[in-house]
Specification:
- There is one protein chain.
- The chain has helices at about 15-30, 45-50, 60-65, 95, 105-110, 130-140, 155, 160-170, 190-205, 220, 230-235, 240-255; strands at about 5, 35-40, 75, 80-85, 120-125, 145-150, 180-185.
- With about 260 residues, it is of the alpha/beta class.
- The protein is globular, with a radius of gyration of 17 Å.
C-alpha cells in the first residue's frame, strides 16, 4: 500500500508547492510511482508541471464534489514519470460547498482511497490556509504531515497555530495523525538569521526535522515558469542536489531500499 503525505503550512511562500513537485520528481527518478494531488485553488503545483489550470477539464474539485472517480481525472507526465490530480480555479468554491456535505472532512480521503494501491507515494499539496481543504488534506495524510518551513523569522510565528490545528484534528477526528517531518527551505548560509531559525525549529520539533536543508536558489525559482521540476530544469544546481538528498533521506527513513537513480 502506498504512502500518503500531506504538505501543509498556512503561511504562503514557504516552499510547500516547490517541495511537493521537486520531492515527487526525485522520488519518481528513484523508481517510485508518484502522484501529486493539487488541493490548492491557486493550482501552482498543476502549473509547475506544465498543465494550464484554465483548461483543466476535471481535477480535485470534481473528485471532491463532482462525483467523478479520481482515477479518471489523473494526468500523466511520461517525461517526468509523474502523475498529477490537477487543480483549477473552480476549487475555490469547494470551501463553501463542503460546509453542507456529510463527512465533509473526509471527502479527499474517500476520493483517493482507490488510488493508494496504485502509487508508492501520494503527495498532497494544500492551500496556504487552515480551512476545510487543508483539513481534508490532513485527514487524508495516513502516513503523516510534511511541514516546509522557510528559514526566516516570520515563518516561526505560524508554527504554533499550525501545531494547534493539527492537535485539534487529532482530538476531534484523527487521533493517529502525526508529523512525519519538518523540511527547512530557502536557507541562506550567509545570514545568522537562517541559522538561528534552523536551531529554533529543531528545538520546536525535536527529532522531526529532516537533516537535508533546501537552499535559496534562483534556478529553483525559475523552474516552474518552464513547467519543470528543478531535477530536469537545472539538475546540477545546489537546489537539485538538495532535493535529491531529501528524497533519499525520506526513502531511507521509510525503509525503501534504492541503490541508485533509475535515470
Amino acid at each position: 500500500m502506498g504512502r500518503v503525505y500531506t504538505l501543509v503550512n498556512q503561511k504562503g511562500g514557504v516552499g510547500k508547492t516547490t517541495t511537493a513537485i521537486n520531492l515527487g520528481a526525485y522520488l519518481a527518478q528513484f523508481g517510485q510511482r508518484v502522484l501529486i494531488v493539487d488541493a490548492d485553488p491557486q493550482a501552482n503545483a498543476t502549473s509547475s508541471l506544465g498543465v494550464d489550470k484554465h483548461v483543466v477539464k476535471g481535477g480535485t474539485y470534481e473528485a471532491l464534489l463532482g462525483g467523478t472517480p479520481a482515477a479518471a481525472l489523473v494526468l500523466q507526465n511520461p517525461r517526468l514519470k509523474l502523475a498529477i490530480l490537477p487543480s483549477s480555479p473552480s476549487l475555490a468554491g469547494a470551501e463553501v460547498e463542503l460546509v453542507n456535505e456529510l463527512s465533509r472532512e473526509t471527502k479527499l480521503k474517500q476520493a483517493l482511497a482507490a488510488l493508494v494501491e496504485r502509487y508508492d507515494y501520494i503527495l498532497i499539496d494544500c492551500p496556504p490556509s487552515l480551512g476545510l481543504l487543508t483539513v481534508n488534506g490532513l485527514m487524508a495524510a495516513k502516513d503523516g504531515v510534511l511541514i516546509p518551513v522557510q528559514c526566516e523569522y516570520l515563518a516561526l510565528e505560524g508554527l504554533g497555530e499550525l501545531t494547534h490545528t493539527i492537535q485539534r484534528v487529532r482530538t476531534a477526528l484523527f487521533p493517529t495523525l502525526k508529523v512525519r517531518g519538518v523540511i527547512l527551505t530557502m536557507f541562506d548560509g550567509r545570514t545568522h538569521l537562517s541559522q538561528d531559525v534552523v536551531a529554533e525549529v529543531q528545538k520546536y520539533f525535536p527529532e522531526k526535522v529532516f537533516e537535508t536543508i533546501i537552499p535559496r536558489s534562483v534556478r529553483l525559482a525559475e523552474a516552474p515558469s518552464y513547467g519543470l521540476p528543478v531535477s530536469t530544469y537545472a539538475p546540477g544546481s545546489s537546489a537539485a542536489r538538495s532535493y535529491e538528498a531529501l528524497a533519499r533521506e525520506l526513502l531511507k527513513t521509510d525503509g525503501v531500499v534504492v541503490l541508485e537513480s533509475v535515470e
